[in-house]
């Protein structure tokens, strides 16, 4: 899997769910580093992901369409993002509506028209060959 900037790493599985709640615990191993919960994944050049980045203390919502990466939006996370700390990312997706929360606090609410039928979910790191961790993945329709 690629994040469009040549950074690779991660894996995906078919959840069978395009609309629902996607949740996982994530943490980075280094600073700066980013880890993303990927959902609505079609292939390495077509997906949507939400994650946290230690370099700017923000949560990010990104997409890649036909190999072109785009930042949909970012938001500063209260208390910042620290390396080697677990964060729970929750994504609620309903058709084109996407809501992103970190540790139970909603930070982003966006409209994204792409990949509304894709059901693959997983994770990726996206700050160059860094270590990223994910645990307790759950998907609820």
Quick recap of the structure?
The chain has 141 residues and is an all-beta fold. It contains no helices and 11 strands.
What is the strand content? over 45%
Biggest sheet details: 6 strands, antiparallel
CATH topology: Jelly Rolls
How many separate domains?
A: 1
Q: What Rg do the Cα atoms give?
A: 13 Å
User: What is the subunit arrangement here?
Assistant: single chain
What's the SSE blueprint?
Blueprint: E1 10-14, E2 20-28, E3 34-43, E4 46-53, E5 58-65, E6 68-76, E7 87-94, E8 97-102, E9 105-111, E10 120-125, E11 132-140
Antiparallel strand pairs: 1-10, 2-7, 2-11, 3-4, 3-10, 4-5, 5-6, 7-8, 8-9
Describe this structure in words.
With 141 residues, this protein is mainly β. The chain has a single domain, classed as Jelly Rolls (Sandwich). The chain has no helices and eleven strands. The chain has a six-stranded antiparallel β-sheet, with no helix packed on it. The chain is globular, with a radius of gyration of 13 Å. The model is unreliable at 1-8 (pLDDT under 50).
Notable characteristics:
mainly beta; 11 strands; 141 residues; five-stranded antiparallel sheet; 60% strand; six-stranded antiparallel sheet; globular; Jelly Rolls
């Amino acid at each position: 899997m690629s994040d469009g900037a040549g950074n690779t790493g991660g894996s995906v599985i078919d959840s069978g769910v395009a609309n629902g709640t996607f949740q996982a615990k994530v943490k980075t191993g280094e600073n700066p580093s980013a880890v993303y919960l990927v959902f609505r994944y079609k292939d390495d050049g077509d997906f949507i992901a939400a994650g946290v980045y230690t370099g700017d203390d923000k949560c990010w919502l990104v997409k890649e369409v036909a190999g072109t990466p785009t930042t949909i939006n970012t938001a500063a996370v209260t208390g910042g993002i620290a390396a080697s700390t677990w964060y729970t990312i929750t994504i609620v997706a309903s058709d084109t509506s996407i809501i992103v929360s970190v540790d139970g606090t909603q930070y982003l609410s966006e409209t994204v028209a792409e990949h509304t039928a894709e059901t693959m979910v997983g994770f990726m790191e996206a700050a160059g060959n860094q270590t990223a961790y994910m645990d307790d993945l759950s998907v609820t329709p």
